[in-house]
Write a structure and sequence with these properties.
The complex is a heterodimer of chains A (412) and B (194).
Chain A: H1 2-18, H2 27-43, H3 54-72, H4 74-97, H5 101-104, H6 108-125, E1 127-129, E2 132-138, E3 142-144, H7 146-175, H8 184-204, H9 207-225, H10 228-248, H11 250-260, H12 271-283, H13 306-339, H14 343-367, H15 385-403
Helix pairs in contact in A: 1-2, 1-3, 2-3, 2-4, 3-4, 3-13, 4-15, 6-7, 6-8, 7-8, 7-9, 7-14, 7-15, 8-9, 9-10, 9-14, 10-11, 12-13, 13-14, 14-15
Chain B: H1 2-40, H2 71-80, H3 82-90, E1 95-100, E2 111-113, E3 117-121, E4 128-129, E5 140-145, E6 148-153, E7 160-162, E8 165-166, E9 171-172, E10 178-181, E11 184-189
Parallel strand pairs in B: 3-4
Antiparallel strand pairs in B: 1-2, 1-11, 3-5, 5-6, 6-9, 7-8, 7-10, 10-11
The chains are: A mainly alpha (412), B alpha+beta (194).
Chain lengths: 412, 194
């Protein structure tokens, strides 16, 4: 079931492609498909409660990603295929190395410190591209985006910390009826850590990642305490922060201005978002068809705006399917969290699920002009080496957690 | 040549969308089936840890609540409430009732009879051993002084809470008082004792 669907879908992708490009080139898509089939075959004889759905979902997302990238720039697609194969290797490595998920909890402070260190180093030594200093490495040779790595490290830290201190935070919140804030002693380090990351992101002008981290923090606080008050408080805080950021950071106010009124500077700040809207409009209900759109007109089409490219070529029907796929990935991941035997595993899965879901929301919302456009990737679809590999590692972690879950039922 | 290609592309477009939705149908069916299984199985074998622990229904303790009003009202209610007075005949001695076992191995509803002086902590030499990670080895003490039960914290790391407030000195216990140690919640019961 798993493999057949996978191959069938990728086969379809291939057929669609063959119509405007040469057939031989389409074989690259099958490389990714073959990688997934091999991976799932390797993982198959496991016999434990491992999730069998996440991998096919990811394979379809990746397949779509490669196809879309190919439309935009064949060179990028080839690179992306290499990254995906590497990512699959990373997934397998993660899955095998993490033999005992609960044991990962020991590394929580290491993970947290690493995340902060990576972000800090990037701020000082990073390479600037388009005014944002998000990359680390040697220009034109090997660069990577520490923010992406920090995302997973942060999940490891938050899950570990909350699994450790959660019970006392929860107990203290529940038995002190009037008191909203639990002891600073327990929440202090958490807040400090997140504030630090947020500060770095804001200084790096990586607003999408900042929003992502903030959302993750809110989710974790809610998971730790079970109190909706925190979610509400955080949303208010976030809105206040947004307003303040718009006022004090010129970079932010440009973005927000382009979001609120793109026509004011249609050839400058508003250009990207307007082109995105034109793409959406051109797509209509069923799209203009694979390979028949004009993604060349979109700035950053392969990374940030890939959703708009999909919208133009696949239309509302296609993007709806794409969004449903992300719903599936997120729901599956939360389901793993629900079934996990160990609180750490549950929290880790929930954190990763939140990251996947939020990231999709932030970037898709950006493309649709529902929220200000920020530069983050659409998981598994966008071009980006670090992003792809890190997403696969996250997937590997989710699978590792699901391995220790109770199987849903013998026949499922 | 133009027409067939256009037709093929059109068919391909819809075939691709159809394939996408076929995949989604399969995926959602799997998801719903699993959710149905989880729902029909009632509670998951291990309760989801991130979710807050549900407050156990205080079946036998209708007047038990945190942040209780002053003791005068409380002791008067002991006579008025049939359930509480029924219990008070069974157990005349003051005692602790475990409300929330938290992370310890205590059981909800478990009754601990109070002796003249009861030490509470994680170490084995305590009168009441609470094996909770957030409980200090010698956490607290409940002793009798002048006919009253006094709760005292023994410099514990995470503190002892009396009706939601962290105690610093000695506190006189009244019937229905809530004591929190680590993740454990205990109620003090001394119906009809003045």
């Amino acid at each position: 079931m798993l493999t057949s669907t996978l191959v069938a879908t990728l086969g379809m992708v291939l057929v669609c492609l063959a119509q405007d490009q040469s057939l031989l080139r389409a074989l690259r898509v099958t490389t990714v498909g073959a990688g997934f089939v091999i991976t799932s075959l390797i993982l198959r004889p496991d016999g434990r409660g491992r999730d069998t759905h996440l991998l096919p979902y990811a394979s379809l997302l990746c397949g779509l990603g490669v196809v879309l990238l190919w439309r935009i720039a064949p060179a990028l697609a080839s690179k992306q295929v290499v990254w995906m194969v590497l990512g699959l290797a990373a997934l397998l490595a993660t899955y095998w190395l993490v033999d005992d998920v609960a044991g990962l909890a020991r590394w929580k402070y290491t993970a947290g410190a690493l995340a902060v260190a990576l972000l800090g180093v990037t701020m000082v030594l990073g390479i600037e591209v388009n005014g944002a200093r998000l990359w680390l490495g040697i220009r034109d040779f090997f660069v990577f985006q520490p923010g992406e790595v920090a995302k997973v490290l942060m999940c490891l830290f938050l899950a570990g910390y909350v699994a450790d201190k959660g019970p006392i935070i929860r107990a203290q919140v529940s038995f002190r009826p009037g008191v909203v804030l639990p002891g600073l002693k327990y929440v202090g380090p958490l807040i400090l850590m997140v504030m630090f990351c947020l500060a770095i992101f804001v200084m790096q002008r990586d607003l999408g990642a900042a929003a992502l981290f903030f959302g993750l923090f809110v989710a974790v606080t809610y998971l730790a305490t079970g109190r909706k008050v925190y979610a509400l408080l955080s949303v208010i805080l976030f809105l206040a922060g947004m307003v303040a950021a718009t006022r004090f950071f010129p970079h932010v106010s440009v973005r927000v201005g382009a979001w609120l009124n793109p026509w004011a500077d249609a050839q400058g700040g508003g250009y990207q978002i307007l082109q995105s809207l034109y793409s959406l409009a051109a797509g209509g209900v069923s799209g203009v068809g694979m390979g028949q759109g004009f993604p060349e007109l979109l700035p950053a089409a392969g990374t940030d705006m890939i959703f708009s490219v999909a919208a133009e070529e696949l239309g509302l029907a296609g993007t709806f399917a794409l969004l449903l796929l992300y719903v599936l990935v997120t729901a599956r991941s939360y389901s793993i969290a629900w079934r996990a035997r160990h609180p750490y595993g549950a929290l880790l899965a929930a954190c990763l699920a939140t990251v996947f879901g939020l990231q999709t929301l932030v970037i898709v919302g950006g493309c649709l002009r529902l929220v200000p456009l920020t530069g983050i990737t659409l998981p598994f679809v966008s071009y980006g080496g670090t992003s792809v590999v890190v997403n696969f590692i996250a997937l590997g972690l989710l699978l590792a957690v699901s391995r220790d879950c109770l199987p849903p039922s013998p026949d499922a | 040549m133009d027409m067939p290609l256009g037709l093929i592309l059109l068919i391909g477009k819809f075939a691709f969308l159809a394939a996408l939705y076929a995949f989604l149908t399969w995926a959602f069916r799997g998801l719903f089936r699993q959710m149905g299984l989880e729902a029909s199985a009632g509670v998951a074998p291990v309760p989801p840890q991130p979710a807050p622990r549900p407050v156990p229904a205080p079946v036998a303790h209708p007047v038990a609540s945190a942040g209780a009003p002053p003791a005068t009202a409380r002791s008067g209610a002991a006579d008025g409430s049939p359930l509480v007075s029924a219990i008070s005949h069974e157990h005349a001695r003051p005692r602790l009732v475990v409300q929330e076992p938290g992370q310890s191995r205590l059981l909800a509803g478990q009754v601990i009879e109070l002796t003249a002086a009861l030490t509470i902590g994680r170490a084995d030499d305590n009168g009441l051993v609470i094996d909770d990670r957030f409980c200090s080895s010698h956490h607290a003490l409940i002793f009798t002084h002048g006919g009253e039960r006094i709760l005292r914290d023994r410099d514990s790391t995470n503190g002892t809470y009396h009706n939601g407030r962290r105690i610093t000195g000695d506190v006189v216990l009244r019937d229905g008082d809530r004591i929190n140690i680590g993740t454990v919640a205990l109620d003090y019961r001394a119906p009809g004792i003045e």
